[in-house]
Structure formats: C-alpha cells, structure tokens
TrEMBL record:
One Gene Ontology term, aspect cellular component: membrane
Swiss-Prot/TrEMBL keywords: Hydrolase, Membrane, Metal-binding, Transmembrane, Transmembrane helix
CDD domains (UniProt xref): MPP_YkuE_C
GO BP annotations listed: lipid A biosynthetic process
Record-annotated Calcineurin-like phosphoesterase domain positions: 135-320
Gene3D superfamilies: 3.60.21.10
Protein name per UniProt: Calcineurin-like phosphoesterase domain-containing protein
SUPFAM superfamilies: Metallo-dependent phosphatases
Cited PANTHER family: PHOSPHODIESTERASE YAEI (PTHR31302:SF31), TRANSMEMBRANE PROTEIN WITH METALLOPHOSPHOESTERASE DOMAIN-RELATED (PTHR31302)
Chain segments annotated as coiled-coil in the UniProt record: none
Phylogenetic lineage: Bacteria, Pseudomonadati, Bacteroidota, Bacteroidia, Bacteroidales
Transmembrane parts of this sequence: 32-54, 66-88, 94-112
Pfam families the record matches: Metallophos (PF00149)
C-alpha cells in the first residue's frame, strides 16, 4: 500500500512538473527545468530499484533508501505547494508556501527527529493494591536501532532522560531493532544498560527478522533468538507470551508480555488481528488481579480486555506515521485512516486504559514532523 502511494505521488509530481514547466518561454530553461524535476521525481524509483537489486538489506542500504526518500520529499513537496498557488496566479503566496514546506521538512529531520518529548499521565483504578499507589512506569517503544543517525548521542540522551524521571520500572513495547539482531551491537548494549530501573520488554514486528531479505544466509528465527538473547544479556527481562508478578509487601500485580507473532507480519496494519498468544500468556493469571499488558500492536487491546485482563495495556508500533498535525488533544495523523487506536491514551467504559506510545525511532524516512520521539511517564493511582 505504502509503495503504491509513493509511486502514485511520484507520477503526480512528474505530471505537475510537466504542466508547469512546459509553459516556460525559454526552450533551454524548459529543458533544464524538466531534467532537474525528472531527476528528483525519479528518486522513489531509485529507492525501489536499489531494493530490487540488493540481495539483502543491510543497514547502509536501508539508511541510504530512507535519506533518498527524504530528499525526494524535500525537493518535490515544496514544488507541489508552489504549483497549487501559482495555478491561481498567487505566485508570491506559492513561494512562501514552498519555503514553509521545506522549512518544516528540515525541522522534521533535525529537531523533530531528535527532540525527546515526555508525556505524563495518571492511571487510576480501584483494582490497584494500595502498596502500588504511586508506582512510576516509563514506557519506551520502537527505538529501531538500525536507523538511528547518531547512536552514541541519541541513546545517551534517551537513557539520561529516562533516569531523570526516576521510574520504578521501564516497560519497552517492541521494535528494538529495525532489520536484524546485529543492530543491537556492543555500543547500543553499553548505552542501553545505563537505564537504571528494571526493564521488561516484548518483541515487535521488526524484531522477528521478517524484513531480512537474504533469509537463507540470515534466518529470521535465528535473528529473533539473538535479539532476545542480547536483551537478556544486558539485563532486560523479555516476556515471551508470559506473565510475571510484581510484588510490594504482601501485594502483587500481573505484568504480561505478548510477543509479536511473525505469522501476522503481512497483517500488521489491519484493524483486527488474531491474538495468538493470549491463552498461553494468561494461563493461571487470577481474574481481578491488577493487570498490565505489553502488546506491540494496539489492535489487540479489545481482545485483551475481553479476556478480562489489561487494566493498563501499553503498545507502540504506529509512530503516528511520524507525521502528526497538532491542534489539541492527540491531533490528527494519516495513521488515523488505518488504525482505530494510533497515538496516546484511550479509556474504555470499564475503566481500562490503553496507551499507544509514538516511539523514538524512524522507519521509511528519517523524519518526525509533529510526532516527536516520545517517552511516557505513567503514574498508577489507587482510586475508589
């Protein structure tokens, strides 16, 4: 779907360029302008061609593709903004619009991509034991290590910001790597180990190795096992369709982690997904015990609550498509066209809460426009 949309936009840009520049009076200027426009319009085709020609998709190829796509946006979208106004004779307005679009794209690839946002929310429940009143949880999601431009600086900033919030525990909701286990290298391990609170995590669709092209030399299952092993080696507790119990005094609450099922990779954007690991994960978990559930994809929320669990469910996955228009509340994103729950907090009529974290990493293009990298601080409160 995304590839088809990109190719459609590329063809639309080429048609708009031809209609605009064919009116140029100078034939030489017209030829030069059309050649330059065609070269930039074809960048998505270059990205697709690179993917088809490469036997595998190592990190340098993925990064090059992402930056080429951003260059396409930065050269084509301002032109389209200009054409829209110039068509009605508003040339100066068109130039201002083009400059504004270009400036927004530059901000998105710089400060928008790296400036961490801390979202704070309180979740209140009468099912929460009194000893857990005030428990501070930090949620992280979707780091996508293979696409971080400056891992040393960005991961250090992330760990420092988490530690400054003084959480009792950190919950990571999947997509630690982008393509393969090797992205969780010694530098990333060393920097993520700086997080001081206990960390519990689940796997996401990028962690399971389904995006490795050369699966004969690099089997997906082997990459997934290595992703889990490296997390455990750095002290993170990976919850693989299982439940653990957090204890304070004589009280306890349940923390359940649902692994992403590789069989669902092609359905990852569907509004409804089968919850394949629920029965195994909740076996023996008492009904009525306060329940926190980590599920990478937010589409599982209703199935989790229908099973009688998930007083608090934490998800990621969507990133708000790294593009969000903020005008109050959660704002709007193209993600709203695909997902029922796509960003921020949702509460159902039974008092259960879902929080969809926007993540900190990037996929597809190295930019976040209005959807800044997010750390969520959740404080649990007991209420009647």
């Amino acid at each position: 779907m995304l590839l088809g949309l990109i190719l459609l936009l590329s063809l639309a840009a080429a048609a708009a360029d031809w209609l605009h520049f064919r009116r140029a009076r100078c034939a030489r200027l017209r030829r030069l302008s059309l050649a330059w426009a065609a070269a930039t319009d074809a960048l998505p085709l270059a990205v697709v061609g690179m993917g088809l020609l490469c036997r595998d998709n190592p990190t340098p190829v993925v990064m090059a593709s992402m930056w080429l796509f951003w260059v396409w946006m930065a050269t084509v979208l301002p032109r389209l903004a200009f054409y829209a106004f110039n068509f009605f004779g508003l040339r100066r307005t068109g130039l201002a619009a083009a400059a504004a679009v270009f400036a927004a794209l530059v901000i998105g690839v710089t400060a928008g991509r790296t400036s961490l946002r801390v979202s704070r929310t309180e979740v209140c429940s009468p099912a929460l034991p009194a000893t857990f009143d005030g428990l501070r949880i930090v949620q992280l999601s979707d780091i996508h290590l293979g696409t971080i431009v400056s891992p040393g600086r960005e991961l250090t900033r992330l760990a420092d910001r988490v530690n400054a919030l003084r959480p009792d525990l950190v919950l990571f909701t999947g997509d630690l790597v982008n393509i393969r286990a090797s992205e969780l290298d010694s530098t990333a391990v060393r920097l993520l180990r700086r997080i001081e609170a206990p960390v519990y995590s689940v796997t996401g669709n990028h962690d399971v190795g389904k995006y490795i092209k050369d699966s004969l030399r690099h089997p997906a299952a082997e990459s997934l096992r290595e992703v889990i092993a490296r997390q455990r080696a750095m002290g993170w507790r990976v919850l693989d369709d299982e439940t653990v119990y957090l204890r304070r005094g004589g009280d306890s609450i349940a923390l359940t982690g649902l692994s992403f099922d590789p069989a669902l990779s092609e359905q990852r954007h569907d509004r409804h997904l089968p919850a394949t690991g629920l029965r195994r994960a909740f076996t023996g978990v008492p009904q009525g015990l306060y329940s926190i559930v980590l599920a990478h994809v937010p589409q599982l929320w209703e199935q989790i609550t229908a099973a009688g669990y998930g007083d608090l469910t934490l998800s990621g996955h969507v990133h708000a498509m790294q593009c969000k228009i903020r005008f109050g509340g959660r704002g709007w994103s193209p993600a709203a066209l695909l997902y029922k729950h796509w960003s921020g907090r949702y509460d159902d009529s039974a008092g259960r809460t879902l929080y969809v974290n926007d993540g900190t990493g990037c996929v597809g293009y190295p930019m976040r426009l209005g959807a800044r990298p997010e750390i969520t601080l959740i404080t649990l409160k007991r209420c009647e």
